[in-house]
Amino acid sequence: MSGAVVGIDPSLNSLGIAYRRADGEVYATCIGAGKSVRGAARLVSLRDSVMYHVRHVVFPQPSLVVLEGYAMGFGARNSSAITGMAELGGILRVALYEAGIRVMIVPPTVLKMFVTGKGNADKEAVSTALTNEFKFKFSKSDQYDAAGLLMMGEAQLNKRLLPRDARHAKRRAMQGCTFL
Fold this sequence. Notes:
By secondary structure, the chain is α/β, with parallel strands linked by helices. The protein has a single domain, classed as Ribonuclease H-like superfamily/Ribonuclease H (Nucleotidyltransferase, domain 5, 2-Layer Sandwich), CATH 3.30.420.10. The protein has helices spanning 39-57, 79-98, 108-116, 123-134, 141-157, 169-174; strands at 4-9, 15-20, 26-31, 62-68, 102-106, 178-179. It has a 6-stranded mixed β-sheet. Helix 1 runs parallel beside helix 2 and helix 4 crosses helix 5. It is globular, with a radius of gyration of 15 Å. The mean pLDDT is 93.
């Protein structure tokens, strides 16, 4: 399997999306629906923005989208945020499925392990590791997460991008991914 890859860090406020441009450079940005947009309108806006990127901005159309999974340890202290994230995740999964695009789901701890070698790394460690390894320079952690997901997707499609040692954190992290 070959083709373009898109990394998506879903968020109701600042959804990160990353892909490789035709010139080979990794581009990452954040998409938001606007503070005044709430409920179903926000979900539709985010879905439409993601699908616009997937269908019209990324070329060629991606054969794989890597989507960060749910943070299961988030807790019940903010059930409305959990519900909103679950709704967004479901809507994105259905839209990508309907578009015929394969989706790889990466739990947050697996992304952190792939990027830093530690599943409990903080956001700063993730951005520092991606800057050191790939020379990325973004302004938001959501962009770094999306770029890390992109790197995982590219490694999924081209195993030569992974270290040969089966015990390496990057190889172990790839085993924690699932597909729709």
